[in-house]
Design the sequence.
């Protein structure tokens, strides 16, 4: 794991800037996560529809005596199922981090200020050090949440490719019957 860069004891304005920027980025990452969640859910419904439509088409074609290539329709159904699996994995696996809530932050602050090496510092430096620790925590949250969003985005792209492959397999089967 990459080691956090420790900012030297810089001024209050610098810590305020980092804090505000961290909150802005955290909000942006969470907004992105909401959009990805909606896309993921819609694509999951669509892939279930594709699976249901393909399986119905295969059943109807067998009822009418049309011989679709098993490899084609079997591959189409497996690809549709795989896309649903990838999308479910991205819903189930990804966890988002949030900065400490106020009661927990208060407890952490009291514990931090009671440390011997911190309690010996002037009050202004104590607060600056705590702000620095909080900003580091916030930046780790933003980094981890951004990485989670990147994984979800990748899973959505993979699922899209699987769905397209599924539909193309079934179209190939239908063209094989016609041709």
Sequence:
């Amino acid at each position: 794991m990459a080691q956090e860069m420790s900012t030297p004891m810089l001024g209050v304005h610098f810590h305020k800037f980092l804090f505000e920027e961290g909150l802005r980025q955290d909000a942006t990452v969470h907004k992105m996560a909401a959009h990805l969640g909606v896309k993921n859910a819609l694509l999951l419904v669509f892939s279930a529809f594709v699976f249901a439509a393909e399986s119905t088409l295969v059943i109807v074609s067998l009822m009418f005596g049309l011989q679709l290539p098993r490899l084609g329709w079997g591959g189409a159904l497996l690809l549709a199922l795989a896309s649903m699996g990838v999308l479910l994995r991205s819903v189930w696996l990804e966890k988002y981090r949030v900065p400490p809530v106020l009661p927990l932050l208060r407890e952490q602050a009291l514990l931090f200020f009671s440390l011997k090496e911190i309690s010996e510092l002037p009050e202004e430096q104590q607060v600056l050090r705590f702000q620095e620790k909080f900003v580091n925590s916030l930046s780790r949250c933003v980094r981890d949440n951004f990485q989670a969003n990147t994984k979800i985005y990748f899973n959505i792209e993979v699922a899209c490719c699987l769905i397209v492959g599924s539909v193309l397999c079934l179209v190939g089967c239908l063209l094989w019957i016609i041709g």
